């Protein structure tokens, strides 16, 4: 099963290396990773998507916790959450097929962000299912390039994991 | 303290001293010169090694023997990279070390400058934490945090990399604040429910076995362990790191378990119905084949590091917490549960399958170790290198006290014993220290003999000389059709070598010379090398072949 780990870390130099290094040397696989500052400039959030069983996740969680820079880990797939990913797709589009592509862009509520004589660049935001469906529908036109930000996610409603980083407390994993 | 300006190096040393450190092990070089200059006026004693690897191992030996953090100091680039093996060694065996390295100036960083190496990057996987100090006003806080992290929870090495201009800058010094590390958890809170479960499991057990590791020694829980064993009349087996955590001569003691463990310890593991793991981490040298490890047992695991629980072997009752605290809570709730039949079975195994070797006219390595024990009555501090001599020491020297056996367990670092012995002797100046060595290992850090002579540290190095990389040769004999590829050694004359360094060399070639030579070495109170020529092709037995089951031992 896929899990989305929301990891709060101290915004110290080298923290990304520490986390990435831990994953590689202990043989954990990262499906995707997105990093950015939180509302507190001293703290960054890493959203890490991993796949594995309970024991794998437990070991990963414990190993991550041993890193001094890791403040809190939340497996948000265990609760109600929203996740998004931003994707840019450069698709072949000569004048003849442009209308067809623009129709698809409308249907998926994507946006065209760049136009050239031979291609369109489209931006789409959404969850996995939507992004994949859009990608599949553009494929017949010829996808020249594609880039994904990796998934970011937050718990829904009143639950949040950003505020209470004063103590490393029991994590919901 | 306002208005007091100190250099970064002065602040560094002041803060190290404030942590209670009176001795550091080090080796100077360009980018560490500001620190060495400040050291010139400092009250801290500096032990000059002859190679940075030796310096790191000496700090390690010092820490293991005294229980206080070991501090080592090296310059940038090659100085720092030479520390790497020592740090990895300390990391694997959970030894508190604070390593300070000089670094190129901040403006030279990242430019492949002379003697630049990214030592924080290099040591990330082998330190508990590390720092590159970019501002002199961060030094005090960093040193405070480094000692705190190194010595608390599951201990380990911490490295502080200090660019030389940071060491030179004069800044206002204010004493370090209290440590605030939101991401660092000291020790997990012990769940009382888990202790209750353990009490119930112990009450139900008919064949309990205690499997004790290095955590017992680090936590200082040897008394609690003894109480637990005696209350339950449960046999105790120790890992290599756990030796000394339980009295070697005790009737409930089964010696070491695992690859070169005693047969009765391994049989007990295979037959017990409850395995109580105390500060041990189910290393593959202990478990052999995971699927057949303690197959009949319910497993309790007490450990301060939650990540060790169910990492290799799935346990039934995990108890997170400091071993000493958990054991004392457990002791308060236990009732004696003496099961005669189990002890009788174990005693029968002990009688039937004792550790044994054939005494011949040649010098047997096991005999030498027994003689060192007889002469010192278990009161010596013993370090070892890595190989056959190390395993024979674990088997035949009856360790009775914690911190008396100092050996490289997890990493298996040849060349550890001599510098470690130096650190031990510095930390315990009045005690008898032996490095039991092999003729291969001793050459890996032989330059440190000069350090011992330099500071007149009366360490005794007993080389069990068989002219082979003995354990390599043994594996080649047993598992590679006696094809002795690159395992036979041409050795120097160790007596002349000792003398060249200014130490005493004693060669021992006959059995009846062993005891007198050992006695003489101890009495000399000088660094001594004993070159003891042993049987060439003796093996460490019994042995569980790699990835084999513990109950299928050879020899």
Protein model, in words:
The complex is a heterodimer of chains A (173) and B (555). Helix content of chain A is 26%, strand content 38%. Chain A has 173 residues and is α+β, with helices and mostly antiparallel strands. Chain A folds into 2 domains: 2-78, ACT domain (Alpha-Beta Plaits), CATH 3.30.70; 82-152, 2-Layer Sandwich (Alpha-Beta Plaits). In chain A, strands 5, 6, 7, 8 and 9 form a 5-stranded antiparallel β-sheet that branches. In chain A, strands 2-3-1-4 form a 4-stranded antiparallel β-sheet, with helices on one face. Chain A is elongated, with a radius of gyration of 19 Å. The model of chain A is unreliable at 163-173 (pLDDT under 50). Chain B is of the alpha/beta class and 555 residues long. The longest helix of chain B has 15 residues, at 52-66. The model of chain B has no long low-confidence stretch (mean pLDDT 96). Classes of the chains: A alpha+beta (173), B alpha/beta (555). The interface between A and B is medium-sized, with 25 and 20 residues.
Short description:
The complex is a heterodimer of chains A (173) and B (555). Chain A is an alpha+beta fold and 173 residues long. Chain A has helices at 15-25, 54-66, 98-107, 128-138, and strands at 2-10, 32-37, 43-51, 70-75, 81-92, 111-115, 119-126, 143-148, 152-155.
Topology:
The complex is a heterodimer of chains A (173) and B (555).
Chain A: E1 2-10, H1 15-25, E2 32-37, E3 43-51, H2 54-66, E4 70-75, E5 81-92, H3 98-107, E6 111-115, E7 119-126, H4 128-138, E8 143-148, E9 152-155
Antiparallel strand pairs in A: 1-3, 1-4, 2-3, 5-7, 5-8, 5-9, 6-7
Chain B: E1 5-7, H1 8-18, E2 23-26, H2 33-39, E3 45-48, H3 52-66, E4 70-74, H4 78-82, H5 84-92, E5 97-103, H6 119-123, E6 129-132, H7 139-151, E7 157-163, H8 164-168, E8 170-172, H9 192-204, E9 208-212, H10 214-219, H11 222-232, E10 236-238, E11 253-256, H12 263-271, E12 274-278, H13 284-287, E13 298-303, E14 317-320, H14 323-333, H15 340-352, H16 365-376, E15 381-384, H17 388-396, E16 405-406, H18 417-427, E17 433-438, H19 449-454, E18 460-465, H20 470-479, H21 494-501, E19 504-508, H22 511-524, E20 528-533
Parallel strand pairs in B: 2-3, 2-4, 4-5, 5-7, 6-7, 9-10, 9-12, 10-11, 12-13, 13-14, 15-16, 15-17, 17-18, 18-20, 19-20
Antiparallel strand pairs in B: 1-8
């Amino acid at each position: 099963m896929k899990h989305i780990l929301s990891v709060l870390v101290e915004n110290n130099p080298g923290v990304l290396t520490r986390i990435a290094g831990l994953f590689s040397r202990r043989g954990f696989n990262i499906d995707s990773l997105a990093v950015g500052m939180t509302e507190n400039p001293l703290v960054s959030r890493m959203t890490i998507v991993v796949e594995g069983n309970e024991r794998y996740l437990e070991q990963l969680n414990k190993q991550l916790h041993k890193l001094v820079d890791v403040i809190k880990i939340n497996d948000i797939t265990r609760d109600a959450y929203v996740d998004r990913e931003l994707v840019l797709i450069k698709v072949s589009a000569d004048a003849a097929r442009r209308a067809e592509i623009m129709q698809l862009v409308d249907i998926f509520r994507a946006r065209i962000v760049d136009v050239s004589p031979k291609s369109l660049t489209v931006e789409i935001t959404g969850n996995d299912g939507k992004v994949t469906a859009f990608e599949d529908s553009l494929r017949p036109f010829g996808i020249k390039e594609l880039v994904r930000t990796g998934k970011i996610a937050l718990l829904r409603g009143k639950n949040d994991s950003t505020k209470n980083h004063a103590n490393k407390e029991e994590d919901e994993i | 303290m306002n208005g007091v300006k100190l250099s970064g190096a002065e602040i560094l040393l002041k803060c190290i001293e404030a942590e209670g450190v009176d001795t550091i092990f080090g080796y100077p070089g360009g980018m560490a010169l500001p620190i060495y200059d400040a050291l010139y006026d400092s009250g801290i004693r500096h032990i000059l090694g002859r190679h940075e690897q030796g310096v790191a191992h000496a700090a390690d030996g010092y820490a293991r023997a005294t229980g206080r953090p070991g501090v080592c100091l090296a310059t940038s680039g090659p100085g720092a990279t030479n520390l790497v093996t020592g740090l990895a060694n300390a990391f694997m065996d959970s030894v508190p070390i604070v390593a300070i390295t000089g670094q190129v100036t901040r403006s030279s960083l990242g430019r492949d400058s002379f003697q630049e190496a990214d030592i924080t990057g290099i040591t990330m996987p082998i330190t508990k934490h590390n720092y590159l100090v970019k501002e002199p006003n961060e030094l005090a806080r960093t040193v405070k945090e480094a000692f705190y992290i190194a010595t608390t929870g599951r201990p380990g090495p911490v490295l502080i990399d200090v660019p030389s201009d940071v060491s030179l800058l004069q800044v206002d010094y204010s004493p370090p604040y209290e440590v605030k590390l939101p991401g660092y958890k000291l020790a997990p809170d012990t769940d009382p429910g888990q202790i209750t479960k353990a009490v119930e499991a112990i009450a139900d057990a008919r064949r309990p076995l205690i499997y004790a590791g290095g955590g017992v020694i680090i936590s200082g829980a040897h008394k609690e362990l003894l109480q637990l064993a005696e209350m339950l009349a449960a046999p105790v087996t120790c890992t290599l790191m756990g030796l000394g955590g339980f009295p070697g001569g005790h009737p409930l003691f089964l010696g070491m378990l695992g690859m070169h463990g005693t047969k009765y310890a391994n049989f007990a593991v295979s037959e017990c119905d409850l395995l109580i793991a105390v500060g041990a981490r189910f290393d593959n040298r202990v478990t052999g084949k995971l699927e057949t490890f303690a197959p009949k047992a319910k497993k309790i695991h007490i450990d301060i590091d939650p990540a060790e629980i169910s990492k290799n072997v799935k346990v039934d009752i995990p108890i997170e917490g400091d071993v000493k605290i958990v054991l004392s809570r457990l002791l308060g709730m236990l009732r004696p549960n003496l099961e005669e039949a189990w002890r009788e079975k174990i005693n029968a195994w002990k009688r039937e399958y004792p550790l044994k070797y054939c005494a011949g006219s040649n010098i047997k390595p096991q005999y030498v170790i027994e003689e060192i024990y007889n002469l010192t009555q278990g009161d010596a501090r013993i370090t070892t290198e890595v190989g056959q001599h190390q395993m024979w020491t674990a088997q035949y020297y009856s360790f009775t006290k914690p911190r008396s056996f100092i050996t490289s367990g997890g990493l298996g670092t040849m060349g550890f014993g001599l510098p470690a012995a130096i650190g031990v002797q510095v930390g315990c100046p009045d005690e008898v220290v032996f490095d039991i060595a092999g003729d291969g290992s001793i050459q890996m850090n032989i330059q440190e003999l000069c350090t011992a002579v330099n500071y007149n540290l009366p360490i005794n190095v007993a080389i069990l000389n068989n002219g082979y990389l003995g354990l390599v040769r043994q594996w080649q004999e047993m598992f590679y059709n006696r094809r002795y590829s690159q395992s036979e050694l041409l050795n120097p004359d160790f007596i002349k070598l000792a003398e060249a360094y200014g130490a005493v060399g004693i060669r021992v070639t006959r059995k009846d010379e062993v005891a007198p030579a050992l006695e003489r070495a101890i009495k000399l109170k000088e660094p001594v090398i004993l070159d003891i020529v042993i049987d060439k092709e003796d093996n460490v037995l019994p042995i569980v072949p790699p990835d084999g089951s513990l109950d299928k031992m050879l020899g």
